[in-house]
Amino acid sequence: MENTEIEKSKALIMVEIIEYVPNAVVIKTIIKKTTGSVIATSNDSGEDLIEKVLPFDKFIQIIEGQAEIVINGDSHSLKTGQAIIIPAHSNNTIKANERFKMISTVIKSGYE
What we know:
Layout: E1 25-33, E2 36-43, E3 49-50, E4 58-71, E5 74-79, E6 83-86, E7 92-95, E8 100-107
Antiparallel strand pairs: 1-2, 2-8, 3-7, 4-5, 4-6, 4-7, 4-8
């Protein structure tokens, strides 16, 4: 799928900027800079995200549905409107037990 930044200076309805695709994870870049990124993701049921360990904190907000976020073996069930911070250097998996959409934000500065 194409992964380009969305148009600036335009009002957005976050849950509508990305669609579900059967048996897939769809990624849409909102902002991508060397200092960090904001990304919208839709995950169909059963399409888990197994992440690499990042050297930065990652903020995850569920904008539709429900996701299971596993951080260093501890499971957290998040539903629409809920958020969590995945600490830097943590093992984590984002599980799609049902389909969901989320916004993830990584800010790379401030770790000097």
